Automatic annotation (TrEMBL):
Belongs to the oligoribonuclease family. The gene is rex2. This is Phosphatidylinositol 3,4,5-trisphosphate-dependent Rac exchanger 2 protein. GO terms for cellular component: mitochondrion. SMART domains: EXOIII. InterPro entries: Oligoribonuclease, Ribonucl_H, RNaseH-like_sf, RNaseH_sf. Gene3D superfamilies: Ribonuclease H-like superfamily/Ribonuclease H (3.30.420.10). The keyword Nuclease applies. PANTHER family: OLIGORIBONUCLEASE, MITOCHONDRIAL. The lineage of its organism: Eukaryota, Fungi, Dikarya, Basidiomycota, Agaricomycotina.
Amino acid sequence: MSYISRQLTLADGPMVWIDCEMTGLDPDEDKIMEIAVLITNGNLELVDEGIEYIVRVDKRQLDRMGEWCTKQHGESGLTEACLSSPFTKEQVAKKVLAYIKKWIPQQRAGVLAGNSIHMDRVFLAKEMPEIIDWLHYRYEPSCNV
């Protein structure tokens, strides 16, 4: 795979593709477990291979997951990975923001994009607001791309 491997400006139409896994869908009760990020220009050319972090989540929070999340994240190994992750939510937020700034140094130039991105955006605004604050106010569901 080839990458464009250069910083993007507003003119490039940068898109920050984010996918989060959560303990459920209630932003007041549930937590982000994992975040993956890819950055492209407006032509969907990747800058690099992207990043992914698993967030340390305490056992009490994981034990409160509903049936679907318990089964899905248990079978995938994500639940166990969250228990042993070396990264706190704050550390992950800092690393993700640094990654975005590396490729999109201008604040509010990058547009948040992804599948079912609205829910991810709600969780990010609550748990990692510094990421949302760096991005453009618009967001782009993948079905629009």
